[in-house]
């Protein structure tokens, strides 16, 4: 009976979250709530694109050239169901935006995941072991940071696509983009984790664990790593928006997603060619979608940075 009463009295993890300072800070931050709603709608509509879009923009058989360059439906000459008009291939702009947003989000999440894994691993090793391991890893990071991120991504993307067989270039282009963006982004995570690890390894609980023979791998993963995650969450949120922008930049420059699998950057690149011909909608609406997506992510990142900063509590 006592155990049952104790279990009922103990709040669940979800109940502790609803009562936490983080949730209270989120509810009281109007811009964060608005950004979360907008970001949720963008992600939801992107992943429900096959159900919401009137056309599959990746199916070339579904494109009809006599529907090319139709204006938005509220303008003269607009036709249903092309709400935002069509491009020069007869591709529905709204469908292209929904499918393109899904590609951009997937590449952004994958890039952050890969760079986060590499950065955490190398940062823990550099901060815990120090010595030549620390020097080698940090000098590699310094070299990468000395080169503009777009140039690093273009170099990696161009080399990888040059060595891929022709049959795999279009299939593996998304993986190449993830690798290109991650090659640069891991450095920031590694530096943050390294600094935190160097502080944590000198604390008494780490020294006591080492004295009793705890393996270094277990010590780093079970004890040191959880104490370094707060700034990493903030950096990952902000870098998610940056990864989407880098992918859009690479696609805009022609080394990203191909026209038959367009991301937001590819749609903007294609539409930019017809900006001064009067078909302004081809470039405007994908640009607005990219802007809304990145601004919403950055606003959430700014709120999370302030909410997790102990000096501002």
Walk me through the structure.
- With 313 residues, the chain is mainly alpha-helical.
- The chain has a single domain (32-56, 89-312), classed as MetI-like (MetI-like fold, Orthogonal Bundle).
- It is built from 15 helices and no strands.
- The chain has helices spanning 2-9, 13-18, 21-28, 30-47, 49-52, 93-129, 131-145, 149-163, 166-169, 173-200, 204-211, 216-224, 229-253, 264-272, 281-307.
- Helix 4 crosses helix 15 and helix 13 (229-253) runs parallel beside helix 14.
- The longest helix has 37 residues, at 93-129.
- This is ABC transporter permease.
- InterPro entries: BP-dependent_transpt_permease, MetI-like, MetI-like_sf, OppC_N.
- The chain crosses the membrane at residues 32-52, 103-131, 143-165, 171-193, 228-253, 280-304.
- Keywords: Cell membrane, Membrane, Transmembrane, Transmembrane helix, Transport.
Keywords:
single chain, 313 residues, globular
